[in-house]
Design a protein that fits this description.
The complex is a heterotrimer of chains A (about 220), B (about 110) and C (about 80). Chain A has about 220 residues and is an all-alpha fold. Helix content of chain A is about 65%, strand content about 0%. In chain B, helix 1 runs antiparallel to helix 2 and helix 2 packs antiparallel against helix 3 (about 60-90). Classes of the chains: A mainly alpha (about 220), B mainly alpha (about 110), C mainly alpha (about 80).
Amino acid sequence: MLHRLLTAAALAALGAAFFAALDAPPPAATPLADAALARLPDSGVSSPVTAVLLNFRAYDTLLEVAVLLLALASVWALRIPAPPSPWPPASPVVATAARRLTPALLLIGAYLVWIGADAPGGAFQGGALLGASVVLLVVTGAAPPARPLPLRLALVAGLLVFALAGLAGPLLGRPYLTWPPSLAKPFILLVEVFATLSIALTLAALFVGVPPERPDPGAPR
Amino acid sequence: MTAPSLYAFVGALLFLVGLYGALARRHLVRKILAVNLMASGTFLLLIALPATAAAGPPDPAPRAMVLTGIVVAVSATAFALALARRVRAEQGRPLLPGDASEAAQGPTDDR
Amino acid sequence: MTWPPFIDLLLATSLVAVAWAALAVRALFAAAVLFITFGLLLAIAWVRLAAPDVALAEAAIGAGLTGALLVDAIGRLAAADRER
């Protein structure tokens, strides 16, 4: 009880400092925002956030895809027990919803990726939606069994394509991950498609928590 | 008080609530939940604070940072939950060692 | 002092209240459900802050996937407890 009171007191002091800081005059507008918006027409897309994510700060996004993969590798390394197989039967509501919603989810997810160039959307939103649809299939037991090698290839494809596409910069005399302005949109689209695939499968694999088992070569097919 | 400054205030409050929960709650999953609340508070601050000042087009950089942050937060949460399950498998309770010896003396609950 | 719009006041109080409830409630499953609710309310807050892409990501990843991970972990821990 005492240590809980001490914690609350320390947090109250921190809170007071926090709110005093919030009362201070707001930060001056940095020139970065204006610079980013000024170069938007050169970025290949018209959505400012997508331009920042996949053009101006593409390095951060590359590392973000790497972090997702790293988290998955770490979860696999922990060897948590596998989910019960087959998955326990889901309620009829969930099962029907999964069956009806999956085609729509796949379509909307793909649409979100495509529209992300000009409107809110992009690889992460679309990838999250597609990953959620895979999770829905897993939970209702309708997901096809994953084969280890194709799954691993699809998981790393996003990072690999992104990292290799970035080489277009040095090959043309620019820094790494700088798209040539006339080809920026095709490059961004290419990177986004593979990133979406990887993000969707990584998120679903994070939910399942265990790598797919290698099929026993001696077992009858 | 404008709407963005209200949300900045909420962001700071959520950060403090999450910090208290991460320190005061014993169950590992609840600590993970609290850290997620801290992350959400930070994201609110990142986006709401510049909005209190600037008029004109919203700054895209903090929104891109928060998008990245959300994805990194879910990766860390997934890893942390797997760690919590391993802790429970190794020690029998999903509690940190210091909390576990404390809890051995008291009633068990989900806190 | 001019008040912000009513919806913002409502959202702000709900966010803090649901966050506090998620940490205070006894049952872990209820905490996870409250966290999902928090994520969805936060998604609406992002829309109010003119950040629709963040709202999409928050709803899908922050509320949806994190909520699913939490509920799954809580269920597995409870099942392991029942097996003892």
